[in-house]
């Protein structure tokens, strides 16, 4: 399989309180449309868009997740496997701004640390803002995220959000591939034996029993490369120990 036949597939999740514009952002970015009608997302939905970045073909699979607490158990399952995240809040909704930290934690609980951006939507309603610009900047710095101020309605700054995330993921992928070429990459390990428990973990919430279980430990997050024709995903190899 030749390199030019490959494209990169990146899963991006958009999280945040309900009615901040997550679904509208995906519709705007992937379909180029905007609708004023608000419909609550039930569970999850996703769209795709293919872009060219740095000479590479990148397929962004953008997942829209429900912001309501009643769907929490469903949406958490769909965070898994995400390679990038958008934390969204609304200029006119103070609660959505204050909930950003909890949304970031939910994603990290399932995915670990992944490239993440903070998005302030509805900047076209600046006259009704309940979030000061300095507050948004301070939050972005404290979270270690880049801040994007966008208007999905007016199509302002939406595309740069996803291009930035794609560029971050490509940078990680290339670093991993370079490490593999230099012999520095270690594939995930599979063990069919019970794992020892560190004395430090006994009695803690991290103390799990693995009797009779097969444990898979990943030593690195992989961005998928897919074949154009068959869309065959190439994942990191595993080693059996």
TrEMBL record:
It comes from the Eukaryota. GO terms for molecular function: GTP binding; GTPase activity. PROSITE patterns: RAB, RAS, RHO. Gene3D superfamilies: P-loop containing nucleotide triphosphate hydrolases. Keywords: GTP-binding, Nucleotide-binding. This is Ras-related protein Rab-23. It comes from Cloeon dipterum.
